[in-house]
Amino acid sequence: MNSEQLKGKLSELLPSVAYEEGGQWLNVNVDHKDWLYFANSLRNNAELNFDYLFCLTCVDWKTHLTMVYHLESTQYRHPIVVKSKLDRTLPQIESVSHIWKTAEFHEREVYELFGVNFLNHPDLRLLILPDGWEGKNPLRKDFEDPVNMIKL
Amino acid sequence: MDVKPDIPNDPFPGEVHPTASGGILVTAIDDVINWARSNSLWPLVFGTSCCAIEMMSTASAKYDWARFGFEVARATPRQADVIIIAGTIVNKMAPVLKRLYDQMADPKYVIAMGACATSGGPFFYNTYSVVKGADHVIPVDVYIAGCPPRPEALLHALITLQRKIKMGLTREQMPPTPTGE
To answer: Whole-angstrom Cα distance, residue A81 to residue B160?
Structure first.
């Protein structure tokens, strides 16, 4: 499917989705409350069949956080980018690790670096950071570390 | 490091006095040991980021550091003489680097390759995870500038290390200072 066809199909599945123009791929904004339903639809709809989550990350915009999911279908070869705004003070979103298994460790990484709480994640703990880092999220823009960091 | 201009580049430190049945060699045993050691430096297979790609290039056919005596890269620190810190050292890697260094047999030498190993480089400011120079963890004999340095720069550093060993100026060869090391 090309981007226009995808847009039609996605709006059919979830009328509240918004599209962002200008990107290389189709950019879709969804509310974080709709994400679990939307993710299931993307994966299980026979015409979409997004079976490959090739990137899961997060962006700190200082005012809010944005979760970014890059998906592709290995059958149809159509890619899509799904974005979801999160509250910076209490960021939480449904885990998709049971839909795409690879999300399990990607979500752990976002959890430790940005402090996003993934609901219903099977094993949400630190991935790379050493023990005792809970509560400090080094990729947040306001992160301070007086011991290790030299400020420019 | 200043390389003294009068450092001999001749292949063997000593004089041969010919006699009727052959010759007599006059030399100092320390010089012979240093000469032997400097021409057979085995590097440890150790690379943490893009500098390691340049190091691999230096080892392979086009640059071929075997020409200068860095014959075989060893995969175990117990058989290596020189560790080339090729890449960024993060706080989590620092104890591993220290342990590798401790496991190397004396005499052992260290080359800090590139900006990261020298000072933290591009990760000096605003990072929580990078060691600001590998010499915070283990002592370094030769530093190389560059990000990453070209293979020629690494060869130059290795040859500089050889000269340093021949001159008896590495950390291990210097007499201990009153305060310890």
So the answer is: 52
Q: Which domains does chain B have, with CATH numbers?
A: 25-166 (3.40.50.12280)
Q: How far apart are CA B65 and CA B154, in angstroms?
A: 9
d(CA A63, CA B105): 54
**What ipTM was predicted for this assembly?**
0.73
Whether B95 and chain A come into contact, CB under 8 Å, resolves to no
CA gap B121, A96 in Å, rounded: 38
Angle at A73 between CA A71 and CA A75, to 5 degrees: 170
Residue window 103-132, chain A: list those with CB within 8 Å of chain B: 128, 130
pLDDT digits (tens, 9 = 90+) for A57-83: 999 999 999 999 999 999 999 999 999
B51-104 pLDDT, tens digit each: 999 999 999 999 999 888 887 888 999 999 999 999 999 999 999 999 999 999
Domain positions in chain A are: 3-91
A133 part of contact set with chain B, CB < 8 Å: no
Q: What pTM does this model have?
A: 0.80
Strand partners for B16: B25
Whether CATH 1.10.1660.10 fits A3-91: no
Decide the pairing of beta strands B15-19 and B22-26. antiparallel
Cβ separation B128–A152 shorter than 8 A: no
Q: Which among B125, B128, B132 has the least Cβ separation from residue A152?
A: B125
CA A43 to chain centre: 15
Rounded distance, CA B32 to CA A125, Å? 57
Closest by alpha carbon to A79, among A88, A70, A87? A70
DSSP labels for B20-74?
Answer: TTEEEEE--HHHHHHHHHHT-PPBB--B-SHHHHHHHHHHSTTT-GGGGT----B
